[in-house]
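This part of the workshop introduces the protein records we will be handling. An example says more than a description, so a record of this kind follows:
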Amino acid sequence: MHRVRAIDIHTHMLPERWPDLRERYGCGGWVALEHCSHCRARMMIDGVCFREIESNCWDSARRRRECDAAGVDMQVLSTVPVMFSYGAKPEHAHDLAQILNDHLAGVVREAPDRFVALGTVPMQDGPRAVQELARCVRQLGMPGVQIGTNVDGRDLDNAAFAEFFAAAESLDAAIFIHPWDVMGREETPRFWMPWLVGMPAETARAACALAFGGVLDKHPRLKVCFAHGGGAFPYTLGRIEHGFHARPDICATVSTTPPREHLKRLYFDSIVHDPEALRYLVATVGADRIAMGSDYPFPLGETPPGRLVREAHWLSAAQRHRILAGTAAEWLGLTIADASHAHA
């Protein structure tokens, strides 16, 4: 049987090495990579281990081999969200974004049939964010960028980000929204709850901010995709919609568009970890708004990528193909020819 090609829109990558950022910027709080063996490294922040990673986080050859084994033809690369650095000085965050973006662009140049990249931008500074977004799209050939669900505590409908969203719409740039710096993380430190509970809630927060805050109304051509199946947003949509109609004096003070109407314009990745959750997501937003994503190469990711979609026998062949490749191609602005050149 011919294997359906697949594009994984949710993968993370780092350079194997980067400068000593404490020395470069004269302050702490930066991630350093401490290689502890030939294929493992620790992400360290001021001497404390944040996460241990394997070489597939930086080794593009290993990534290609693992993609071949999993039936993934193309990966969309983005940085690890801890590298956003939204709380840093804008000039420092901008410099680091350029280092990370140049690295990802280099990986794509080496294997353009296997990789596409989304850049990162210093969202805490509007002009700098727009400048780096334009550089990513116009100079580095990236289809868009990845941003966080909030920027140092500020919701995405904050007026400080208006210039960025206007530029993204003008450039036809794809925006991948990934949870980070989740609300309530200090109150829920046990049992990995910031990742298991906080991240889904944080993504719903971002979706509601864009909808209620009028960003989606103001920019109807904005191409936004939410990580992790939209987090809690699609699954609490009934409550959100009810609240919008029950208390318009609170919820409809900026936008008068019901939240459910926005689903027609939003994209979501497929990493929901549960067959019935995927069935609900398809029924609620449609296969044409869902793109395969795996969160490769991290522990909360789906292994192998696309397994949930491939095992969903209730999907039609057209729906399965759409989720595995078609939606990603549409969202990223890839032509069918671009996708068909992927390694088979």
Remarks:
- The CA atoms of residues 228 and 271 lie 5 Å apart.
- The first helix runs from residue 21 to 25.
- The domain at 7-14+60-340 is CATH 3.20.20.140 (TIM Barrel).
- The chain has one domain: 7-14+60-340.
